[in-house]
């Protein structure tokens, strides 16, 4: 009788659980409140404002003229160049970053290579804007260090060969500085997920290294690679500070055109800028949605 009475919950214990659970829930919501506030102020409200502004004129009246003007040749050309640069830097960044991650993780290199590469990638993936543009101008500009060294010691004029840091190739090369490290950080967990037993099983069945990569490794890495490429594409498509500081207005890309419409003195048309930003949000949002879907798929396959 005494044992059963000891096991039964007392009325005070039954009434104490709900308040403690409520307090824990309240503390959890307070913990995420700064994130929710940040998302509301810097993501949700600005996105809502540009969506509304894209369908208004300067007087605040409803109009579709801003959307129609997105199909002007100049604006379509800006979107085309931006898409091409983003795609080129994303594809090259994906391939180079994958090779670097494979060499550091699976290449049998010294142990210090991997943490060094990871640390550098964490820093370089966030190095953009005016400092990055200045670094590339100082290195590959007309009087940059590498340009002058090639001219002095190899008698090779880089700019006479057709290269220019202010061109499509120059901006793509600059973007690769932060695209490749970002790819290394994204693809490293997927590369780590390749098990040695898979290669050993392939070899025991008479398969070659090429067969292992074709039928086992690449199919496993493929969703992560495509998802990372989409994320790199969105990352490059939304970059404005690096492109503006490097090329100014010499290259007609959509981010520079957007900046000119919102802050420019001659081309100032804020509502057209909202429409340009809305188009960018749709493109980058689609790329990010594809990345999230492929990442979940790769995680399920790895599990």
Automatic annotation (TrEMBL):
UniProt keyword Transmembrane present: yes
Keywords, comma-separated and alphabetical: Cell membrane, Membrane, Transmembrane, Transmembrane helix, Transport
Transmembrane regions: 26-45, 85-107, 127-150, 162-191, 211-234, 241-262, 274-294
Domain ABC transmembrane type-1: 79-293
Flavoprotein found in the keyword field: no
SUPFAM superfamilies the record matches: MetI-like (SSF161098)
UniProt subcellular location: Cell membrane
Topology term for the membrane: Multi-pass membrane protein
CDD domains assigned: TM_PBP2
Family designation: Belongs to the binding-protein-dependent transport system permease family. CysTW subfamily.
Protein name per its UniProtKB record: ABC transporter permease subunit
Organism for this UniProt entry: Chromobacterium piscinae
């Amino acid at each position: 009788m005494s044992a059963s009475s000891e096991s039964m919950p007392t009325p005070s214990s039954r009434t104490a659980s709900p308040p403690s659970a409520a307090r824990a829930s309240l503390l959890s919501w307070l913990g995420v409140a700064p994130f929710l506030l940040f998302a509301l102020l810097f993501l949700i409200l600005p996105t809502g404002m540009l969506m509304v502004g894209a369908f208004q004129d300067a007087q605040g009246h409803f109009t579709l003229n801003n959307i129609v003007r997105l199909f002007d040749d100049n604006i379509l050309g800006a979107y085309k160049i931006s898409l091409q640069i983003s795609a080129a830097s994303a594809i090259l960044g994906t391939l180079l970053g994958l090779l670097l991650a494979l060499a550091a993780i699976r290449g049998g290199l010294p142990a210090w290579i991997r943490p060094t590469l990871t640390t550098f990638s964490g820093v370089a993936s966030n190095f953009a804007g005016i400092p990055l543009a200045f670094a590339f101008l100082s290195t590959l500009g007309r009087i940059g260090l590498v340009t002058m060294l090639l001219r002095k010691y190899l008698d090779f004029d880089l700019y006479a060969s057709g290269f220019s840091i202010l061109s499509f190739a120059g901006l793509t090369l600059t973007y690769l500085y932060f695209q490749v490290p970002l790819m290394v950080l994204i693809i490293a967990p997927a590369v780590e997920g390749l098990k040695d037993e898979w290669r050993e099983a392939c070899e025991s069945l008479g398969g070659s290294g090429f067969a292992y990569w074709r039928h086992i490794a690449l199919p496993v890495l493929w969703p992560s690679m495509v998802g990372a490429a989409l994320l790199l594409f969105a990352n490059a498509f939304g970059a404005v500070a690096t492109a503006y500081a490097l090329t100014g207005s010499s290259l007609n890309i959509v981010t520079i055109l957007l900046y000119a419409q919102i802050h420019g003195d001659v081309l100032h048309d804020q509502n057209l800028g909202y429409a340009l930003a809305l188009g960018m949000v749709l493109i980058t949002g689609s790329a990010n949605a594809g990345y999230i879907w492929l990442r979940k798929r790769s995680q399920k396959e790895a599990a």
